Amino acid sequence: MKFKEYPDREMLVVDVAQQIVTDLNMALVGPDRVSIAVPGGTTPAPIFDVLCAADLDWARVDVLLTDERWVPADHARSNAGLLYRHLLMDRAADAHFVPYYVDGKEAKEGAAQTSGLVEQHVPLDVVVLGMGADMHTASLFPGALGLSDAMAADAPHLCAVQAEGQEPRVTLSAPVLNSAVQKHLVIFGDDKRAALEAAMDAPPEDAPISAVVQGATVHWAA
């Protein structure tokens, strides 16, 4: 794990976007399509605002989410909706987005149906991760219903999980996240830095981030 500290969040945003472009361009040297999985939320949105204008062959890039709330894309809490507002625009509008939500299905049934689509993009060329102060990443929440299945070595590529007090979600499994060629973890604040340090000495079921951060570059700013 490589740790990069930045003097401010603005510099982090620009540097991470540039690193993602570098990673994708390296993958695009070959003849095949390339894949990137990204989180939702407010932390990565400024990175997407920079990344969407990058000059690369977006038509050969498949964009996936690391996790999604089981809501339609036009729902206010949809991660897919956030991508359409911040990433899948400008030059990046040519990218191919892989949605997870299936109308009329429950999260578990929908995850089983969509897992085969995810399999086509594994191993991911690039994954961008966030982390909560509770040491969760993607929707791998400590104590969540379905966490053990999503953390297992033989886990499906996409898993349904239910954290207490939250809407149902689907998440890329720990093996899928951990197998990405390039991994970037973006965190802000002293509390997140302390949580990451604590996670390194905690069992994965209590600190899911510890199961997927091996070999990652951690980008941190206060």
Describe the structure.
This protein is an alpha/beta fold. Helix content is 30%, strand content 19%. The chain has helices at residues 9-27, 45-51, 79-86, 107-119, 147-151, 174-178, 190-199; strands spanning 2-5, 34-38, 61-65, 67-69, 96-97, 126-129, 158-161, 169-172, 182-188, 217-221. It has a 7-stranded parallel β-sheet, with helices on both faces. A 3-stranded antiparallel β-sheet has the order 4-8-7. Strand 2, helix 2 and strand 3 form a beta-alpha-beta unit. Helix 1 packs across helix 2. It starts with a strand and ends with a strand. The mean pLDDT is 97.
Keywords for this entry:
alpha/beta, seven-stranded parallel beta sheet, 222 residues, three-stranded antiparallel beta sheet, globular, 10 strands
Q: What is this entry, summarized?
A:
This protein has 222 residues and is an alpha/beta fold. The chain has helices spanning 9-27, 45-51, 79-86, 107-119, 147-151, 174-178, 190-199; strands spanning 2-5, 34-38, 61-65, 67-69, 96-97, 126-129, 158-161, 169-172, 182-188, 217-221.
Principal-axes geometry comes out as: globular
Query: What share of the residues lie within helices?
Result: 25-40%
What would the average pLDDT be, to the nearest integer? 97
| Unreliably modeled segments | none
Coarse structural class: alpha/beta
Number of helices: 7
Order of helices and strands: EHEHEEHEHEHEEHEHE
β-strand number: 10
Q: Biggest β-sheet: count, sense, barrel?
A: 7 strands, parallel
Give me the side-by-side strand order of the main sheet: 1-10-9-6-2-3-5
Oligomer: single chain
**Rg, alpha carbons:** 16 Å
